[in-house]
Amino acid sequence: MHNRTVEAVVGFFLCLGVAAILLLTFQVSDLQRGVNGDSYTVYANFENTGGLKVGSSVNLAGVNIGRVTEIGIDEQTFESRIALTIQNDYQILPKDSSASILTAGLLGEKYIGIEAGGDLKTLKDGDTVRFTESALVLEQVIGQFLFNQASAKDE
Amino acid sequence: MSGNLVTVRDVHFYRGKRPIYSGVDIDIRRGKITAILGPSGTGKTTLLRLISGQLKASQGSVEFDGKNVSQLSRSGLFELRKRLGMLFQTGALLTDLTVFDNVAYPLREHSGKSEKEIFKIVLDKLEAVGLRNARDLMPSELSGGMARRVALARAIALGPDLVMYDEPFTGQDPISMGVLIKLIRSVNDDLGITSVVVSHDVDEVLSIADYAYIVADGKVICQGDSDTLRASQSEWVQQFLNGKADGPVSFHFPGPSYQDDLAAEGIA
Amino acid sequence: MTTFFAHLGRSFLFLLQLLAALVPTSGKLRLRLLTQQIWSVGNQSLVIIVVSGVFVGMVLALQGYRTLVTFGAEESLGVVVGLSIVRELGPVLTGLLFAGRAGSALAAEIGLMRATEQIDGLELMAVDPVRRLLVPRFLAVMISLPLLTAIFSCMAIGAAGAHLIGVDLLGVDGGAYWSQMKAAVDFQGDVLNGVIKSVVFAFGVGWIALYQGYFAAPTSEGVGRATTRTVVTSSLFILGSNFVLTALLFGGL
Hints:
Helix content of chain C: over 70%
Largest sheet of chain C: none
Structural class of chain C: mainly alpha
Oligomer: heterotrimer
Shape of chain A: elongated
Distance between the termini of chain C: 31 Å
Number of helices of chain A: 2
Structural class of chain A: alpha/beta
Number of strands of chain A: 8
Distance between the termini of chain A: 93 Å
Largest sheet of chain A: 8 strands, mixed
Number of helices of chain C: 10
Strand content of chain C: under 5%
Strand order of the largest sheet of chain A: 7-1-4-3-2-6-5-8
């Protein structure tokens, strides 16, 4: 085959391959795991994170506004301390907002839901969310339910 | 220009445990055609590889133009090989290149000449082997004899001091055999190149060789010009030169005799 | 047993020689040679990769759907297809097909060059056959296989493969197919690890094929044996190293 033709065909092949990788990157996988653009970080303490992971989403009214970027332990209170990295577009969270760990569907992924408060001041970089609600641990819920049933019978 | 270009002294070589050479002395004189004759499987090609440094002798020395080949570094060997041309049995043309590109290949690799100069040289060499007009063919389109002629053009492209021919006549029809003989002679004389021809085609080789060695069983059996060889008293040499079926080299594979075999089975 | 170790040792030395030759000594990188090789290694494998990808995707969608529908979870078809293709089937099947198509061809080509004394010829022209013949082919394999793997995966997942069967024929919701896949397939954890796998496979196939060809016995039988060995050894290499890579990259052990 002529040299120019070979070069053109090889070039086509390379483009095809790169296009396939891009397609896998953007169409098949979710590259939006990190937080795009500028962001700020606030912290929240929970009694129990119940399977929350780094990379889990942070939602406000069902809209994704950030990601969990760090999960650690608060050495004073022995609670978990979680860093929430939130896009700068959403610097509107009132100071008394609350964060809860929720589950998508019955057995789905854990995520953090933020419920806006009424304060006029907003959360700034490095602030800690004061009001939190831990993850629902299914065993505890069932245990509590059984206990309540039993005590209801006793009365 | 006189004396030896290649001097082989007391060379021993083993393939595995099998000795191929046990003490061989060969001189290849400048500007002459030296023939190495011998039956198949005696390692004639091995000798060429010892000279080109592809193999190293286990004992003894191979000197090329005063330098001991087996002591050369890799780069030294590559320098040496630029002064060598070799014609392989099959031609060994690169199958993915045209005839022209094959001949131009060593020039492009080593000469540093411009494409224009290379074109001129390649055309000259192809003209010398009579294949100037076949330059755009692929090696697969050539006959065996033509492939060898192209390979010869490639071997002499860099203007080497020594050209080695490995069985150049094997499997050639009489016409291309004649062409090759003429070419070997003319390349040697016109370009002042030293030639080594390894072959077992006795008559063809002796017709052009200035000096010949007969090698068998790891030793030089006989040497001299063609008249000396033909006048040799050795029965073995006579059998080899004249192609007799039986003689010192037995027609029968060694072992018990026919009668013994029959007797062993209780037939006779 | 000693021959086994001898083979291993020789192939390892061969690899070192090959890797050392990857560093260009003369300034000119032989792009022409590389292009030529990508054409014969990559482009020539394109058809079999595309066709196989389509069929693998189709059968995966069919089987996945049948299982998922019993749990009423057929919307998760995208997850099943996406993860299994990107993580395992894409790299492994492409590697195996590539070993059969391109690896064997490489071994045969180099082995034939050995048999027809072309390699000796190069050496005698003071040209390093490792640099001239093997390095461009090795690089071509390293470039082509990851790209082919990506193409295979796209064909399997995309409109002609699993999507065709799952969404267009079996009636899984197209939006759910893509969005669930997107949510489950991670770029770093899955796509990138798949690429890493295919690079490792390319390394193995290139090494094995070139080694087998380069050291093939210079007869037609030797060339035949070299091609067979290439396919067998590289297939085993791919499957074995795939297990190790899965354990390393995805954990679980």
